[in-house]
Amino acid sequence: MSANGQTTPHAVIGLWKVVTFGAPGLVGFMLVTGTLHTGLMGRQFLDAYREWWARLGGWLAVYACGWVLLFLLVAYMSAWLNAFVVQEYAKHHYRLTVSGVLLWVASTAYGVLFGRSSATGLPIPDAPLKKKIPRWAARATPYMFILGLLVGLSVLSARVAAVLYGEPFTFSAASDYVDLKVAFAWIGFAGAALLLSWRVDINAFSTHLLYRNRLVRCYLGASVPGRQEQPFTGFSAEDDLPLSSLQIPLTSSESELKARPVVLLNASVNVTRGNELGLQTRKARSFIFTPVHSGYTRPLPGRLEQESLFSETARAGVEKPGTENGLSLGTAMAISGAAASPNMGFYSEPALAFLMTLFDVRLGWCLANPGKEKWVRGSPDVGFLCLLRELFGAASDESKYVYLSDGGHFENLAVYELVRRRCKLIVACDASSDSGYKFADLYNAMERCRIDFGVEITRMTWHTVPQNGHVSQHFDLCRIRYTPGNDSDDGVLLYLKPALKGDDPEDLLGYCRINQSFPHDSTADQWFDEERFENYRNLGYVSALAAEKELRDKIADVPA
What we know:
Helix content is about 45%, strand content about 10%. The chain is α+β, with helices and mostly antiparallel strands.
């Protein structure tokens, strides 16, 4: 302290050194002491205790490193920028600042545009160095963005603190401004964040609703007779309907029961964090919406049985205004197709989750866990904790609210739940972008069904494998072996794949020569023109006609 009672800069710096390095230093001292203690105990120290101390040491080291990095950014980053940029390179200060910001923006754009391209996708161990560099760059850019963002927030917080402190901003750290007004300002910011997360529904203010409303208008609104849309927006509340309204009444006759389909909508409940080793690659479970019940299953620890976590669809979110009749068909449909989400099953990456949450690329949905008591609340009352889970890629099925996304983040052909129900005839259309005909979605479905249900799916035909650029047929047949040794219990999977035969209509073959990506355009392209849409429609029609006879024969073989 100075003679007039003011805090000196040296005192402030000393205080923040203690805060930054004091706690990690104590942790390090404890770890060294524990290591010496464990070693000196020698043979008297059991392996189980040694493992316990090793795990404790590992987690304490992780938290200590995180503590140091956080306070280095908050308390020192602005001062370092002042020392190394503003003072050392005063003449080129603005050039360096602008160049750094432009480089940061360009690297972020590269990661967003090319992070999922064929050149930067799956690793190829034998690829030359020049082909590996784009992938390394794409994987590094999210971390560069996060670092740049944190540095920018550090400078911004220092600037706010300087204004409140009443001094001109000179790239000093926020920690240099010790004043009650500054402390109250940060408390106010934290309170505002909690208030907003309470008043603003985490699901209502995301891109999910933008996506859902357009899906509903496109696919459900088309079947509403005499549709009366809102003149300005083009939407209508009458387009959507409660999913529970599609239940088959118990009073239905036998012929009505056979005629009405059972609606199943597949989604993925994300489990990107957890202790279950079997989910370290999957990072998701299958979640199913039906008109009667919705939920998922998971294995009981140490047992062969499955735990069913289901609740009534008609009661999902009934306490929230607008969902008094439960979850709507449009919401379930949009969740089932929520391909771009911070948590995406086996596609999940922590850095990508951070970016997508920050830019609100959140087509997924935060729903009350059907195994918990909050089911009737629907979405969380205070969404701040759920948003943090999205931000850090830490979704779990143990929490009161689960994060749901595209069913393809678990199994993309929607075969899994039909095999669970032991269906005898399954028709699956693989519309993924698979120009190399690697059949990844089919093999993924085979693996999931074999591991989880003990059901083997094997290909009986290989017609959809191209030879000289064309396939011999638009579909393949697969055997579903539900009970080993009992052929009468087998089922059939009729597998349709977008491909071209040599005798397909000439305009289809000609369009493929003009547009070489057809029929495997990227699913990111959501803006087909009339010509492209018509050729895909025509290919679907041709494929269905080719499978018609086979399908009729298989239907006739299925017992009534």
